[in-house]
Amino acid sequence: MMALLRALLALLQRDLLLAVRRRQDALVVLGFFVVVVSLFPLGVGPDPQLLRSMAPGVLWVSALLATMLSLERLFADDFRDGSLEQLLLTPQPLPLLVLMKILAHWLVTGLPLVLISPLLGMQLNLDGAEIVVLMTALLLGTPILSLVGAIGAGLTLGLRGGGVLISLLILPLYVPALIMGSGAVDAVMYGSSPEAHLSLLAALLIFTLLLAPWAIAAALRIMLD
Amino acid sequence: MSDAAAAPAHTPGTLTPHPFPAHCLEVDSLVLERGERLLFNGLTFCLDAGELLQVAGRNGAGKTSLLRVLCGLTRPMDGDMTWDGVPVRRLDDGPGGHLAYLGHHNALKDELSAEENIQSQCRLHGCPQTPEAVFSMLDELGLGGHADLPVKLLSQGQKRRVALARLLLLRRPLWILDEPFAALDVQVIEVLRQALEAHLAARGMIILTTHQVVPVRGPQRTLTLGDGA
Amino acid sequence: MAQPRVQWFKFSSPPNFYDLSGRLIPWFGGLAVVLFITGLYTGFVVAPPDYQQGDSYRIMFIHVPAAWMSMFLYVLMAVYAAIGLIWRVKTAEVMAKAIAPTGALFTFLALWSGALWGKPTWGAYWVWDARLTSELILLFLYLGYMALHGAIEDRQRAANASAVLALAGVVNVPIIYFSVKWWNTLHQGASITVTSSPTMETVMLTALLLMTFACWMYSIAVVLWRARLELLERERRTKWVLERMGGKA
Which residues span the membrane (chain C) (predicted)? Predict the structure, then answer.
């Protein structure tokens, strides 16, 4: 048990250390998120009311695309330098190792999106209460995006044009998270309670947390076979 | 962790480690097909403590594939593999718990130092090391001054030596090495040769592929993969 | 690993599957043609116009079976994929791959007929109706499956990887369906959907059932045919294929 815990922490620590030494990767994802959100007003015009009503969808779709962008490298670097093979040979259960890698990935790419979202929300004229709900929804939703996306990242390991393929595989599976996440913000905006949306989102997170690691582990085993 | 726990912990002076308990690996009627080509059919052999098995064959005969099957990375289409009489898939530590694999890649992270690389991997494999043990091992392999440098600053041969240090520190009875001598300078080949001999002397087992003659003393066997061997 | 095969699996051995499917395909194909003709005749000639929607409701006879098939086939594909992945049954892998294009075709048909029906009913070809939106996402799922299968060169790996994707998809399909439905009711309120004909006369029901059976027969025939070809290609070096192909080299 202790050996397992120590191994999982070692993986988390290694991935976080790598992210710190390659901080540009995480910053690029964050930058992408900010730029995409900032482009929308230029596309649809500066009408505050219109921007406000579009804000939940715009923020969520941008978060979704930013996550997508960062996923390609989740396993690809480990795959290329042989670390992934070594990971499969350790005595630790692969689904848990995978979960640690995703946790590290979320801490460096998902969490920053959540933290910067208030700023972008204000840019799109959301008020205080709406921003709180937006952050909560993103906090519950971005781990889902990372977990589900990791299935795609695993399945496209070592394929040509893997990045584009991931989007085709994974974006349809993002629909529930997108609907509930942006729906929560919509709900407060129209004066009703976002509770139902947020609880469903939380339920979806638990569900994904329980199932996705197995699918990802299976995907990795298959692609390294 | 039955195997690693039974073996004594690493002590400095590592190229001559304490002996392992006697193990045996049995492989029975292995079948593997790759991209519609039958690489081997009914491959059977067994390996005892202190033995070295060299897998030979022309390019594309399936040497690397065989090693990956033995590691449990590739699933054979049929056949059994047992370790001390236990099917490999049912071992407590998973199919890779009793072995250390050195493939074409060194499995090193460019941004981390040699020491960090080895530390994290040893902890992942369930046999954590003290920093002193890691440093003395790197010293012994002639990387004393480079242990704190990011691996990307090391030369190809030096990287291979870091991977070798990991192999030695993991203290696994079975080594599976894919072309371990490739692209190494004479000096490193000598270090590797000594390590292999010491491992065999300590009742370890080695399975390797190589294009060169293996300059190792001790019992050796060759398994040649050919068309439908 | 080498367990004795259960008797049931004998049916699924490639040569048996090949021979049996070869005999069955003409029957299913023939039945499909007969059912299509009678179904279309019943639906478009015999059945009376609807008192609310006039003749435009007749598109239902294509739309509804297509939509049903698209969902059934996805589940079926996932089941075959799972069998192939877990028990490593080659015929099941081949079946899963063979179902995908037919499933995608029916999904596309459902979308297209839905759009044609939408024009006279809603005044627009595309409305973000819950069912149509779900169908659209289903089409993306099918496309993703086929794209992944096509992108991986090694056939075994392609079958296994896309099986994982199909399973991830089939777990998600109900969640997607309900979230889309929920989204739809929150945003624009329930609208009339293609299936909600208030009164369904017996003739209409008969036509609908005939068309549904026709679609099933067609799917079985086409899928078996595709699976057969795929199996031949995958096993082209084996004895049984060489024997059946007239023993050339």
Answer: 24-46, 66-87, 94-112, 132-152, 164-183, 203-227
| B89 inside domain | yes
Test the C interface: residue of A68, A75, A159, A168 with most C CBs within 10 Å:
A168
Residue type, C166: A
Residue-level pLDDT at B10 = 41
**Domain containing residue A8:** 2-224
The whole-angstrom separation of Cα C185 and Cα A54 is: 18
> Are A168 and C147 a contacting pair at CB < 8 A?
yes
Neighbours of B219 (CB within 10 A): 11
Q: Where are the beta strands (DSSP E) in chain C?
A: none
Please tell me if residue B121 touches chain A, with a CB cutoff of 8 Å. yes
Kindly state whether residues B67 and B27 are assigned to the same domain: yes
C179, A156: Cβ pair inside 8 Å? no
Residue C135, token pair as written in the block = 């169908």
Same domain, B77 and B182: yes
pLDDT tens digits, C81-124? 999 999 888 899 999 999 999 999 999 999 999 888 888 877 88
Residues of B in contact with C153 (CB under 8 A): 35
End-to-end CA distance of chain C: 32
The predicted complex's ipTM stands at 0.92
How does residue C9 score in pLDDT terms, banded at 50, 70 and 90?
Answer: low
- How many other CB atoms are there within 10 angstroms of residue C128's CB atom? 13
Q: How confident is the model at residue C151 (pLDDT cuts 50, 70, 90)?
A: very high
What 3-state DSSP class applies to B41? Answer: strand
Min CA distance, B108 vs chain A (Å)?
A: 7
Strands, sheet with B220-224, edge to edge from the N-terminal-most edge strand? B99-102, B174-178, B205-209, B52-56, B220-224
* pLDDT on residue C98: 96
pLDDT digits (tens, 9 = 90+) for A150-203: 999 999 998 987 788 999 999 999 999 999 999 999 999 988 899 999 999 999
Report residue A139's pLDDT band, with 50, 70 and 90 as the boundaries: very high
Q: Is residue B6 one of the residues assigned to a domain?
A: no
Count how many domains chain A has.
1
In this prediction, residue A42 has a pLDDT band, given cuts at 50, 70 and 90, of: very high
Q: Which residues from B are below 8 Å from C236, CB to CB? A: 36
B90 domain-assigned:
yes
- Find the mean pLDDT for residues C136-144: 96
- Tell me if B150 sits within 8 A of B110, measured CB to CB: yes
Structure tokens at C8: 């049931």
Same domain assignment for residues B93 and B115: no
Paired tokens of A175:
């629909």
Q: Looking at this protein, which amino acid is placed at residue A104?
A: A
- Domain end residue (candidates: B171, B186, B205): B171
Own/partner contacts of C7-11, CB < 8 Å, gap of 24 or more, are C9/C87, C9/C89
Terminal-residue alpha carbon distance, chain B: 35
- Both B182 and B89 in one domain: the answer is yes
pLDDT, mean over chain B: 84
Q: Is B67's Cβ below 8 Å from some Cβ in A?
A: no
Q: What is the CATH number of the domain that holds B55?
A: 3.40.50.300
Contacts 24+ apart (CB under 8 A), A202-208: A202/A140, A204/A144, A204/A176, A204/A177, A204/A180, A204/C175, A205/A140, A205/A141, A205/A143, A205/A144, A208/A143, A208/A144, A208/A147, A208/A148
> In A, which residues are within 8 Å of B72 by CB distance?
88-89
